[in-house]
Structures are given as C-alpha cells and as structure tokens.
Amino acid sequence: LGEVFVAEDTELKRDVALKQILPRQAGNQTSRARFLLEAEITGNLEHPGVVPVYALGSGDDGCPYYAMRFIRGESLEDAIQSYHSESHWDDPAAKALQLRELLQRFVAVCHTMEYAHSRGIIHRDIKPENIM
After folding, report:
1. 59 neighbors 42 (Cβ within 8 angstroms)
2. What is the pLDDT of residues 59-98, one digit of tens each?
3. What is the pTM of this model?
4. How many other C-beta atoms are found inside a 10 Å radius of the C-beta of residue 87?
5. In degrees, to the nearest 5, what angle opens at C-alpha 78 toward C-alphas 73 and 84?
C-alpha cells in the first residue's frame, strides 16, 4: 500500500522515514482510507517496539504521507542471514552468543505484537525484513 523513503525534516534537521502511498493506489479511495487508517493506528501505539509517527500530511499532488522516526541498523532478516552465513563458527561460545541475541530480538518482537494485539491491532505484514 505504501513505500518508505528516507527524508530530511528541514525544520528539525533530522532524517525521518517517510511513508507515501503507492502511486498506483493514490487514486483509489479505499486504498487512501486504509493508508490513513494505518497512519492513525500506528500513531496511537505507544510502545518501545513501535516506530513513532511524527506527522501526517499530503504532498503537493494531494497524496498522503506520514513521517516516522528513522531507525538505523540491521534488519532481523539481515541478522538471521549473517548468523547462517558465518563460515568460521569455530568458536561455539560466539555462535551461542549470537543465537542468544537473535532470540532476544525475536522475544522483543513477540512482546511488541502482544501489545498491539491487546489493543485489537493485527499486523498484516510482519516479516524479518520489516523488523529493525
């Protein structure tokens, strides 16, 4: 439904993640309503595991967007691939530590999803590449 870009918040001099509705969806009123509802729902979730929404607006073309905190770092997908691609796992303690770190990240995701579920929200696109 949307596409995420890194943008500059010129007022506060910071990078933000800017989610815009996909151009092919912009003319569809149902898609626009879903996009705006997604922004509203996300903006109302207050949890350390949920990226905060800073602003909601429309571009010069009238297409909606919302700005969120830009999260730097490695996705869970990248961390999993890194773990499985390590060719020098001659140190069992290092391998165990990295697995433990992956599992801690997974548990944090589970807590975040439980928070959302407790508020009647179901994430429909949860996957390791969407988790920072």
Report:
1. no
2. 998 899 999 999 999 999 999 998 888 766 788 888 889 9
3. 0.83
4. 5
5. 140
Which residue carries 């595991």 as its tokens? 49
Distance CA 109, CA 129 (A): 13
Q: What angle do CA 24, 20, 12 make, to 5 degrees?
A: 160
* The amino acid at 99: L
Annotated catalytic residues are 125
Cα 47 to Cα 20: distance, rounded to the nearest angstrom: 23
Can you point out the beta strands (E) in 1-132?
Answer: 2-9, 14-21, 53-58, 64-69
Eight-class DSSP state of 67:
E
Cα→Cα distances 3→17, 19, 26, 65, Å? 10, 5, 12, 9
70: its two tokens? 């830009």
Q: Give bridge partners of residue 4 from the DSSP assignment.
A: 19
Residues in the chain: 132
Which residues, including other chains, have CB under 8 Å from residue 12's CB and lie 6 or more apart? Answer: none
